Amino acid sequence: MIENMHDVPYVQRQHFGPETVACMTKIATLVRGAVGENTRCGIQVLACGNEEALAVAKACNFDFIRAEGFVFSHVADEGFTDANAGQLLRYRRNIDAEHIQIFTDIKKKHSAHAITNDISLKETAKAAEFFRSDGIIITGASTGCEANVDDVESLVGETELPLIIGSGITAENLNKYWNIADAAIVGSHFKENGNWRGALSEVKVQAFMNKVNGFRNQF
Description:
The chain is α/β, with parallel strands linked by helices. The protein contains 7 helices and 10 strands. The chain has helices spanning 18-35, 50-60, 85-94, 121-130, 149-155, 174-177, 202-218, and strands at 2-3, 42-44, 64-67, 74-76, 79-81, 101-105, 111-112, 135-138, 163-165, 183-184.
């Protein structure tokens, strides 16, 4: 999955310049060309550029997007994020992109959720499923922070959607999530010193995948 993580400070989508979509489209095209057509690829456009991500995915033959603010509003570090499932799914249909999956953060990182404090994680997940999400993403408080295992376990059996860990996965804690999650988005752990700003470490990627393959053979 690709995202414009280094495009800080982030702005809400109404403040995007056309260069954001143009650059992400070029990058996505290069990625698709490098990995071939048989590797699943996804995209997120920060911040909350869900329709923009769908447009790039459609143009570049990507398979999924990561969407913020799908159900229930929250206050993110770049400002207020309103729920957008209705607009997003209608846009997906309008551009003939219903084959592209939408994986959705709930109670997402880098955000305050006081305005929905009376809505549990389980009810938020059920709302996302009702609004036709393709997968639920659970994160820790910020980039690189572990998702709470109890939070993930609380959703097992409560939704038919895949449960995806969206932050904090490492080779060292992978075992805690292996039997309760369906997928994971790994970023910071693959960088030097575990810092998202660092260079990609091929050694860390290989060590992680060795651990994954070991679990696959075991289970």
